[in-house]
Structure formats: C-alpha cells, structure tokens
Amino acid sequence: MLLAGCFTGERPYFSDADQYPTGVPTGDAAVDAVLTKLEAATAGPATAAYSILTKYGNVTNPALVVLSPGKRSVTVGNTRYIQTETTAVTCTEDKSVPCVDGFDPQRISDTSVTVDFYAADTAKRLRRDADAKLGPAIASTSTVAELPVTCVDVTVPGGVASYCVLDSGLVAKVDDGDVLITLTLFGEIADENAFVVPS
C-alpha cells in the first residue's frame, strides 16, 4: 500500500489514528516530553541502526533507517522499504524476491513493528500506553549508543513500558511486552545510494 503524507505524520493504515491523534498533549508531562520529539522527528539527513527483538518467539532482527528530505529507506531483517518523491517499493536485501510497487506491511508483520517504528509508530505505542497507564509516568534521561536520550517509563497492566528518544526525534529504545528496540548507531548523514531501487 502506498503511504502518503510526511514521514512522521499519521499513517492511513493505523485504525487508531482518530483515537490517538498526533500533536495532542496527553496531560502527563513525562509522556509529552517524549511524544513531542517523536512526533517532530527529523526528515534527515540521518542514519540509524537498530536491533529489534520480537519477544514472542525470541527473534532478533537488524534494522536500518536512512532519511533524507523527501526520501527514506527502512530495512527490517531481509525486507527493505524505499520511498522517494516519486516512488514507493518493497524489496528484499538478498534480492531473493523482486521488488514490488508500494509498501507491503505483511513482509514484517511477524516482527511486531511497522515501517514507521523509528518515530511515528512508537509515538502511537506510547499514546496507547499512556491511555492505559496505572499511575503517573516517570521521566528520566540516559544514554543509548553513547548519545543523550529523553526517556519515560509507563506502568501499564502487565508491567512497565519504557521509551527513549533522541533529540532528533528518532526512537532510541522501546521495551514493552512485544518488542525491545535498541539503537546501536546514529549519524546525521544519509547515503543517497540507499534510495536507489535495486535492479
């Protein structure tokens, strides 16, 4: 499915877009400090590498996000999504399956993340948890991949969900009941070759 709009805005395939609208304060300062950054994430240039542990099945996948104004390349495991001003395609890193037009979210559905995990989808996760929280969220600061991050812990039924974000607005860490997303490398650069559709 072709995704429209800016990279950090609402995505049409989320069914809870109206219930958790972007940019609306939750009323919890600790949550809002992280949301404000996630929902205004950089358009680039930026490159971020991640490790994504899907807790159901205990499977870890590498991920790479490359952003440049008007363009992005998001790789999760063997699946790569490329979006430019004129195209959107889903490819495989090992070229075992030819690229197809549009974004196919099913390719990474078993990872419990979406193509927008690096900002917009994490913001929606946090909004859902904030809506279900059992008490005030706890703010903190930390470092991830040797970079300063703003964090919040939200107590929800079943445990504590933790979120950390870079000053750039890209996610640095998510630890909830479904996934553990950890930033491993970040730089304010973008390799333009990342936006070239493999032949």
Structural topology:
Elements: H1 29-38, E1 46-54, E2 59-68, E3 71-76, E4 79-83, E5 88-92, E6 100-101, H2 120-132, E7 138-144, E8 147-156, E9 159-166, E10 171-175, E11 179-187
Antiparallel strand pairs: 1-2, 1-11, 2-3, 3-4, 4-5, 5-6, 7-8, 8-9, 9-10, 10-11
Helix percentage: 10-25%
Output the number of helix runs.
2
**Overall mean pLDDT:** 90
Q: What name does the CATH topology carry? A: outer membrane lipoprotein receptor (LolB), chain A
The backbone outline, from C-alpha atoms, is globular
Strand line-up of the largest beta sheet: 6-5-4-3-2-1-11-10-9-8-7
In the CATH scheme, the class would be Mainly Beta
Low-confidence stretches: 1-15
Structurally, how many domains make up the residues?
Answer: 1
Oligomer: single chain
Distance between the termini: 21 Å
Question: Could you give the order of the helices and strands?
Answer: HEEEEEEHEEEEE
Structural class: mainly beta
Would you report the number of β strands?
11
**Radius of gyration from CA coordinates:** 16 Å
Q: Main beta sheet, described?
A: 11 strands, antiparallel
% residues in beta strands:
35-45%
